[in-house]
Amino acid sequence: MAVGESTHYEDARLHALGYRPELSRVLSLFDNFSVAFSYLSPMVGIYSLYTIGLGAGGPRYIWTIPIVVGLMMLVALVFGELASEYPLSGALYQYGKYNVGPRYGWFVGWIYGFALLATVASVDSGAVSYVTDLCNTWFRTHLNPADHLTIFVITGAIIVLSATMNSVGAKLMGRVARFGVYVETIGTFGVFVALAIHGFHRGFGYTFTTQGVEHLAHNPWGVNFGGHWWTGAALVAVLANVYIFYGFESAGDISEETVAAQRQVPRAMRTALLYGGIASFVLVLGLLLATPHGGIGPIVSGGIPVILAALPSWLQDFFLVMVIIAFFSCGTAVQGAGARVAFALARDGAVPASATLRRVSPRHKTPINAIAVGTVVPFLFLLLVLINPSRNYHILWFDYPAHINALYALVSFATSGIYLSFFLTVLGALLARRRGWRPSGHFTLGAWGVPVAVGGAAYLFLMLVNIVWPSSLTSGRGALFNYGWVTLLVMVIIVGIGALYEASARPDRSVGRHRIEDGDAADARRAGPR
Predict the structure, then answer these.
(1) Measured CA angle at 96 (ends 93, 98), to 5 deg
(2) Distance between CA 233 and CA 229 in Å, rounded?
(3) Helix, strand, or coil (residue 400)
């Protein structure tokens, strides 16, 4: 099918769902995949969480990667079916709105959008230590990655640069993401090859060992799993991968800018998750096999650079540049996805200042004001780095841990918010099927639809509980991931604020009016070519 003909069909589907085409449909399958893959970003995830996974679960934690990817693939299949049926900006918000109702969809959009904008601040601030390392090496500076001003300036610069890229046009966003894919490929498979050439120190059997991390005496983080790996250490170590393998759904957020979205977006979701899983496994495998004979303790303390120190200095610098680019590409993709959710909500009149936020740039055909929201809100989150207590603070019934700045506490919501919105979306698909909905897009699961959705919902629910379950600050989960009650409490507060706003302003009524007034969406839902 020619591009022009495909665009005509996609635009007809938009009209059938009650919308008129406003954004520029210029992204190819590879562009769409690249945005999703850049958001998932194996390099960002592994370079941020490898030492936590290793310290919590030992080398054996690598085998939680295929488990997480395999179970999350069930979710990707459900999302692919929804994306093919509703190829609209805002993805999860739209799926909840059409499958269950305006109020349900609004809540999903609120939680998902908030989590995305928190992720922007998280990802971009994660690049600071690598940027300062590079500057200190190349320019003989003395930047401190823990300094509040340094974090604010570097992270702020990345946020603004990403916003500029996103504002100029979807095509440029796609090109940035494409470059990110190339960088991720070099930075994962390239690291493995470089370490292999230099010489591995361990055999493959090393990946099946725990190195005794389930015992307090041998745990480099000083956390006690009571000598239990499967029922203790593994439940915490798996979170190092649970925190990585999402973002593929952003392919749906940019559906209205993708050519042949009903066919291409489901493929992009599955491919981004699968390739991300393979790249992550290869990178972690290389790092494990290159572990020096001194054990995992020095690596947990010093991070991945301890392993890469065996490589020539120029190669270390090269991979450092690759990491920084990966962080930037990831942050740009997340910001773009968050802006599309804000745009989708504003287009339905479901957020304050909707008339302004829904405005599309006449020149670049991008949701320019929604992108501004995706810039300002992460900046506000960034101010939280100034709150960094030097000792534990007792608040109500729990302790806020020392040396954990408030940005990290908010960032801990990013993953829990993503998993909550994912769970609500899959649950919404099951509810819709129970009411008689039968998917009729280009991609459907047929008779497998219900069991796949049930499996995906079960996985999401169990992992959400695993993420937010309040644990002692001396436990693995509390010390390394959710800071005791903090993650759960932040999630409850954000959902509660949304509930108060929804109850008082009733934005779902605007969403409902849109569905009634704009094109008889209910009757035309299945219009357009299949």
Answers:
(1) 105
(2) 5
(3) strand
Which position has the token pair 């999903």?
A: 108
User: What beta strand segments (E) does 3-161 contain?
Assistant: none
CA atoms within 13 A on the CB side of 497: 8
Helix then strand then coil, in percent of the chain rounded to 5, is 70, 0, 25
Between β-strands 393-395 and 398-400, what pairing exists: parallel, antiparallel or unpaired? antiparallel
DSSP string, 453-472: HHHHHHHHHHHHHHHH----
* Token pair 């993805």 in the structure block, residue: 91
Any bridge partners for residue 258, and if so which?
Answer: 27
Closest C-alpha to 463, from 499, 487, 489? 487
Q: How many residues comprise the chain? A: 530
Nearest CA-CA partner of 117 in 286, 351, 431: 351
- Closest by alpha carbon to 382, among 166, 113, 120, 143? 120
User: Residue 411: what pLDDT?
Assistant: 73
Residue-wise pLDDT for 494-522, tens only, equals 999 999 999 999 999 988 776 655 544 44
Q: Calculate the CA dihedral of residues 442, 174, 4, 9 and round it to 10 degrees.
A: 30
Residue boundaries of the structural domains of the chain? 31-524
Secondary element (H or E) of residue 429: helix 406-434
Instruction: Judge whether 155 and 128 are in contact, CB under 8 Å.
Output: yes
What are the pLDDT digits (tens) for 444-498?
A: 999 999 999 999 999 999 999 999 999 999 899 999 999 999 999 999 999 999 9
DSSP reduced 3-state for 393: strand
Dihedrals phi, psi of 396, to nearest 5 degrees = 55, -110
- The two structure tokens encoding residue 158: 């990345």
Amino acid (one-letter) located at 127: A
**What residue type is 91 in one-letter code?**
A
What is the distance between the alpha carbons of residues 315 and 310, in angstroms, rounded to a whole number? 10
- The CATH code of the domain at 31-524 is 1.20.1740.10
Give the pair of three-digit tokens for residue 408: 């990290």
Coil, strand, or helix at residue 443? coil
Supply the DSSP string of 175-230, one letter for each residue.
HHHHHHHHHHHHHHHHHHHHHHHH--SS-GGGGG--TTTTSGGG-TT----TT-II
**Phi, psi (5° rounding) for residue 66?**
-65, -30
Q: How many helices (H) and strands (E) does the chain have?
A: 24, 2
End-to-end CA distance of the chain: 13
